[in-house]
Amino acid sequence: MKIYNTLTRKIEDFRPRDEKLVKMYTCGPTVYNYAHLGNLRMYIHEDILEKTLLYLGYNVKRVMNITDVGHLESDADEGEDKMLKGAKRENKTVWEIAAYYTDAFFRDIEKLNIKKPEIVAKATDYIEEYIEFIQGLTEKGYTYFANGNVYFDITKFEDYTKLSGMDLDSLKIASREDVEVDVHKKNPQDFVLWFTKSKFDNQAMKWDSPWGIGYPGWHIECSVISLKNLGEQIDIHCGGVDHIPVHHTNEIAQTESYTGKDWVKYWWHGEFLIDNEGKMSKSKGEFLTLSLLEKKGYNPLSYRYFVLNSHYRKQLAFSFDSLTSAENAYNKLKSRVKYLKDNAEGEVGENSDAYEKYKNDYRACLADDLNTANAITVLYEVIKAEDLNNNEKLSLIEDFEKVLSLDLLKDEEDQLDEDIVRYIEDMIAKRQEAKKNKNYDLADKIRAELLEKGIMLEDTRQGVNWKKIN
Ligand code: AMP
Ligand code: ZN
């Protein structure tokens, strides 16, 4: 498999440290609110990465943290506690907030057919380990104590900027964005390992420590949870591109200072889902959730299908129009698979050369830095292939589904038959033609006829979408 490595800024051959077991760490959600569609995009691509590795024959040990300890508003340690903000908003304790949104997160990922990581670790379960880790760093001379907090001194770590490739001045600007400068830091990029004091004294989760009652800095949880569950060296570390300059840079600095070894072999970063205002984020207030999509009548797997048609290293623009188009394409795909199931015939193995060829093509797409869009193209080729019988097609689809996980073979009661879908599309084409000829009466008649059959048309900039209504 070839995969892009942020650390080397190159596409590389993937060779795990141990031939058969891939150790994979993925930064998990902050559970003070629902995950938004941008977060979920990341988890879908990470799911594809894990399932591709499994598909290619590796064993994977995957860890994900749950940030249930309130970390500060910005990556650079200043700002308000997110968890507390959630608790205030909802009149619950921070612990209740964390438990509630952790459950909501797992419900969301289940609906998107995302495999739950083998090890899910709550940040608040590792307090003793953080203290031990900070003591270790202190013994080695990497920390200093100022104004009640323990800081990591980035000048003590060689090559602090190796992941981002940015110079320190640009990083300084990145970490100063919108936040007040902490005057107690020796260097602007230094970060807090343990807080006993911050701008807000009412942080609700606090623990005893050698430095006083307080709470851990944010970056530390990923380093320690990874160390404890995967050992000192791992293969892949995943997260969003926003984590490159601060969070992951700090994770590397403290982990490698602690162990004296190089830590992550491949850094994997997913690009953003954007809306018309730019990066989608929870902190902006209004955000799109999976339950909102469901309320609007979308199938969560249409969103998965939408995401899989993009490459994880490219930004993806979200709009309801494009989601609707994805849902239509997805429904049509399912109806075509249903047709194959209703007409299952032939022996698997009858056309073994063609069968192997499609399988290899599919594998090659995934092994090419996870090109899911091309993998889906191979799926379409299989469906319309003339050199395969229907049972061979179904067998390949079943195989491809190990990674795509789109429930293509699942029986659903309200699934439309392929000929009905074709009929709807014919009618839409006729209506477009009528509109082009300014025959609006006919166009309206076609719309009304479809509506009577429970199909609602929606004109969008990208064309006409349809939806089944009850
Ligand atoms: P958070 O819960 O805010 O810590 O974010 C969880 C994950 O979602 C992180 O890996 C982020 O990098 C990622 N993420 C945040 N916003 C977006 C977005 N708009 N598009 C894609 N991923 C995002
Ligand atoms: Zn992390």
Topology:
Layout: E1 2-5, E2 10-13, E3 21-26, H1 37-55, E4 59-66, H2 82-90, H3 94-111, E5 119-122, H4 127-139, E6 143-146, E7 149-152, H5 168-176, E8 191-195, E9 215-216, H6 220-230, E10 234-240, H7 244-259, E11 264-270, E12 273-275, E13 278-279, H8 290-295, H9 300-308, E14 316-317, H10 320-342, H11 352-367, H12 372-384, H13 390-404, H14 418-436, H15 440-452, E15 455-460, E16 463-468
Helix pairs in contact: 2-3, 6-7, 9-10, 11-12, 11-13, 12-13, 14-15
**Counted beta strands:** 16
Number of domains: 3
Q: Kindly state the mean pLDDT as a whole number?
A: 91
Structural class: alpha/beta
Approximate strand percentage: 15-25%
Largest β sheet strand count, sense and barrel closure: 5 strands, parallel
Instruction: State the helical fraction.
Output: 40-55%
Low confidence ranges: none
Rg (C-alpha, Å): 25 Å
Can you summarize this structure?
44% of the residues lie in helices and 16% in strands. Strand 1 (2-5) and strand 2 (10-13) form a beta hairpin. It has a five-stranded parallel beta sheet with strand order 5-4-3-10-11, with helices on both faces. Strands 6-7-8-9 form a four-stranded antiparallel beta sheet, covered by helices on one side. Strands 13-12-14 form a three-stranded mixed beta sheet, with helices on one face.
